[in-house]
Write a structure and sequence with these properties.
This protein is of the alpha+beta class and about 500 residues long. The chain has three domains: about 240 residues, Spore Coat Polysaccharide Biosynthesis Protein SpsA, Chain A, CATH 3.90.550; about 110 residues, no CATH class; about 120 residues, Immunoglobulin-like (Sandwich). About 30% of the residues lie in helices and about 30% in strands. It has 17 helices and 25 strands. The strands form three sheets. Strands 1, 2, 3, 4, 5, 6, 7, 8, 9, 10 and 11 form an eleven-stranded mixed β-sheet that branches. Strands 15, 16, 17, 18, 19, 20, 21, 22, 23, 24 and 25 form an eleven-stranded mixed β-sheet that branches. Strands 12-13-14 form a three-stranded antiparallel β-sheet. α11 runs antiparallel to α12 and α11 packs parallel to α14. The protein starts with a helix and ends with a strand.
Amino acid sequence: MLNKVNFLLRKEPDFLNNIKYNKKGYYIHQKNKTKNSKVSVILPTYNAETTLNKTIDSIINQSIGFSNIELLIIDDYSSDSTRNIILKYAKKYANIVPVFLEKNSGAPSIPRNLGISLAKSKYITFIDSDDWFHENGILSLFNLLEETNDNYAVGKTVRVTDKARLLNGPYNSWATRKSISPYSIEQVFQHLGPTGRMMRREFILEHNITFPNMKFAEDKIFFIDVLINCETISTSEDVIYFTNRLSSNEESLTTVTNIFEQTDTNIYAIKYVIEKKLPGHIEKMILNRLYGFDCINRLFNRKHFLKSKNKMKYFKKFAEVLETTKLIDYDFTEYLSHDWQKILVKLYNEKRYDDIVKLIKWNRSKKPKELLIENDLPFNKLPFNDYNKTRIEMAASHLSSIKIDEGLLITFKVYGDFLDDIYDVRITNRKDELDYAQFPVNQISENTFSSLIVFDELDKLSKNSHAIALRYSGYKKIPIRMNSDRNFITKKRKLNYYTTIADNLGLKIK
């Protein structure tokens, strides 16, 4: 009652400075006055005055109709004009529910959990205060869940930088798949952020799934719990969500979090998963991500490791990671996705720390890696006498390019594990992964393939430099190695097929 009186009598800044909070440490400015909303959007905010308008507008302009949305904006005690912006929207829309925290929680977990507890709709989805939805994003996932009766659906997330629009986690969204086992997606645990996904609210409450109050990795644990409790999930190839990675945007929490703090939270996540005593194949899928990506890739395969003058600090932290492997009864390296990661562990166990640095420099180098073919299987040559090669899944090399009336017929050799699972040749704008063309592949012999690159299809692409890759297993790509440049003139454009720094086939459309 005091808040209502103060809001009527005081000016907005004065009112915001005199809010009376409840015993739980928050204040709800207005409850949702609309009935039967279909989706609750949970939006945590903190000092988001420069980006918040775009985020909220993207929700208001959803094709599902804003009247079908409950928008819960949970502000984590902002010190800028964020709360004024929220109140401005709330005055106009009865289904916007501002929730103000009495103290800053320091992480998005508490605001997100509060949003889940307050939500009233059948489904919930999350958005960060510097991101935005595609106009059809919410409707796409809502329709998919309504059709399948699944508890979870995910679609495309596009990462927007100053230079490009790139896809996050393409394994999640390369195809529309309905009511499939989550474990049928090999890398389902690789991308575990809250972006571009929707869940049934009752499912979350029934399984008591919450974000742990952690500075980092809280979303990984939340979505691990979501996925292991889903018998089936659905995926959409539609674009759902855009993440803001523009240089004008302030640094995110993950960029300012110390790498050793991050590794500590990943160690916690490893122990959390092991303690669940999940079926072996599920545990191995999750730990593959936590060990391989979070504790090897992020700790070592980065510039900060190579630039560090105290690399022993990294190796000591990795010793803590390996200590957790004593809690499992199998060799975790057998399930790592990349052979070079297995070799890194061997080098560490042999205390060959300088060779680990050499391995990371080799792996990060843009120079072409020497390709070895043994028994029709591809390897990259390593700079060591004992560990002299590392296995790769697939490799392709250019054989010929012949111009015919309708296009360019290219032939190439392919070696590897998935020759029967090759989809197409995909030509993708290097600055926009939503701008692409794809062309069928024909198998000529066991290792020889061809594809007709139709000029009329290339005319639909933007003028820019494009990557050319062979797509297999749905979403995986391998470049096609090239040995010389070739120029072709069509009626409309000049096409320059060139060799990249890494000796791969590229295309520049002029």
